[in-house]
């Protein structure tokens, strides 16, 4: 059953579904919290906590002035505030997708959580990051009044890097299109943050981490998932055959089965 937020902070907005150990679901950069709708029925053993990230429907008047260096720390602060609103004995799991996965890992460096699940964290390999210019190309299109084209560039590079026969037809069937066009500026800020993020040799996360990836996603994200796995002191790496970067919403039963097996241990 869906329940409203349990906090009085207007910037901390979330839904609760079910009972049990809380699993905090952090969505990525191209969809609001409704991204997790296909996943929720498979998390019936847990209490799913589904927040709305800053800039994706919450009241953040300062976002327009936010620099790319402040985006990830701001997301981490948001997770801290969210977990502070949960009961003291919550023992939460952080489950993030893409930029939400990177946020979950960074937040867990100084949070006491039971575990972290990271599906293809938004981390760029060093050689790929040097030439990355998606944020600039998107920003140019937004400035030119071509918001839809800006978001399409993101879809082409991140969701369909190998191309798709009829992108417009695919977008017409995409549940979050065209509403996600409203997120264009936030996605530009997020991409700038991703392009500047450098993976350290070691990520100081005490909690066990499950790093997930799919064989049909972008090669650079699969490479980065393995690098993140290697930088974590307590990590398991699982690759799902035939699944893309949209794994949690595309194959929720398989993804949750991997998560459930990990958490049971």
TrEMBL record:
Gene3D superfamilies named in the record: alpha/beta hydrolase (3.40.50.1820)
GO molecular function: hydrolase activity
Pfam families xref list: Abhydrolase_6 (PF12697)
Keyword Hydrolase set for record: yes
Keyword Mitochondrion: no
InterPro entries per record: AB_hydrolase_1 (IPR000073), AB_hydrolase_fold (IPR029058), AB_hydrolase_sf (IPR050266)
Ranges where the AB hydrolase-1 domain occurs: 23-258
Sorted UniProt keywords: Hydrolase
The name this protein goes by in its record: Alpha/beta fold hydrolase
Source organism (scientific name): Halorubellus litoreus
């Amino acid at each position: 059953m869906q329940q409203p937020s349990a906090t009085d902070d207007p910037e901390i907005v979330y839904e609760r579904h079910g009972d049990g150990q809380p699993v905090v679901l952090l969505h990525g950069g191209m969809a609001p919290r409704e991204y997790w709708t296909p996943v929720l029925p498979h998390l019936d053993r847990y209490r799913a906590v589904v927040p709305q990230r800053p800039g994706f429907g919450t009241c953040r008047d300062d976002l327009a002035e936010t620099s790319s260096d402040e985006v990830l720390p701001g997301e981490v602060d948001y997770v801290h505030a969210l977990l502070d609103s949960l009961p003291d004995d919550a023992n939460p799991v952080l489950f993030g997708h893409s930029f939400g996965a990177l946020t979950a890992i960074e937040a867990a460096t100084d949070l006491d959580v039971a575990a972290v699940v990271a599906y293809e964290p938004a981390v760029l390999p060093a050689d790929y990051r040097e030439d990355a210019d998606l944020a600039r190309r998107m920003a140019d299109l937004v400035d030119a009044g071509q918001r839809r084209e800006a978001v399409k560039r993101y879809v082409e590079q991140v969701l369909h890097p190998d191309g798709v026969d009829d992108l417009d037809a695919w977008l017409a069937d995409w549940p979050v299109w065209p509403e996600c066009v409203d997120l264009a500026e936030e996605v530009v800020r997020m991409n700038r943050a991703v392009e500047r993020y450098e993976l350290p040799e070691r990520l100081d996360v005490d909690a066990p981490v499950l790093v997930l990836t799919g064989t049909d996603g972008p090669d650079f994200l699969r490479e980065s998932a393995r690098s993140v796995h290697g930088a974590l002191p307590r990590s398991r790496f699982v690759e799902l055959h035939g699944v893309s970067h949209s794994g949690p919403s595309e194959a929720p039963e398989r993804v949750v089965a991997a998560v459930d097996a990990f958490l049971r241990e």
